[in-house]
Amino acid sequence: MHTLLFILISGIFQPADTGLNVVFTHIKEDRGQIYVAVYDRAESYMSPEKARAVRIVPVRQKGSLTCAFPELGPGTYAVSCFHDVNGNGTMDTNFLGIPSEPYGASNNARPKFRAPNWQETRFEWKKEAATISIKLEKW
Predict the structure, then answer these.
(1) Do 23 and 64 touch, CB atoms closer than 8 A?
(2) pTM given for the model
(3) For the chain, what percent of residues have pLDDT higher than 90?
(4) Which class in CATH covers the domain with range 2-135?
(5) Which of 44, 69, 126, 138 is the most exposed place for a label (fewest CB within 10 A)?
(6) CA 106 to mean position of chain CA atoms
(7) Domain extents in the chain
(8) For residue 69, what are the β-bridge partners?
(9) What's the pLDDT at 14?
(10) Spatial distance between the Cα atoms of 19 and 71, rounded to a whole number of angstroms
(11) Distance (Å, whole) CA 24 – CA 118
C-alpha cells in the first residue's frame, strides 16, 4: 500500500518520460498550492469540472516546480493555473475582480483586461512526452 501511494505521489511531482510535464516558474512564495487544469476542448476551457486532468500541487519552495500528467497522450491541450498562496481553495480577486494571486496559462498568454482564451493558450503536442513552462505572475 505504501509503495503504491509513493508511486502515485512521485508521478505527480517528478517529470515523466511519457505524458505532459508542466514546469511552473517565477514562484515567489513557498507556501500554499498550485491549482492546475488541463483542457482538451474549447467548449470546456476554464471550466475545471470539465477539465481533462486536474492537479493540486503543494508549494514548498520558491523558484520552479514541475507537475506531471503521465496519463495524457499527444493531442491539443490548454493549461490554466493559479497559485493559491493563502490556501483558501480559491483564486482571490480584488473588488474589481482582478486576480490578487499569481496565475498563468499555457503559451504564457496574458491579455490585460480579461482571462486568456482557448485560442491563445492551446498548443499541439505530437511526441511521446512534452514539457511546457508557465510563468506565474500577478496582474
Answers:
(1) yes
(2) 0.85
(3) 80
(4) mainly beta
(5) 126
(6) 8
(7) 2-135
(8) 20
(9) 52
(10) 6
(11) 19
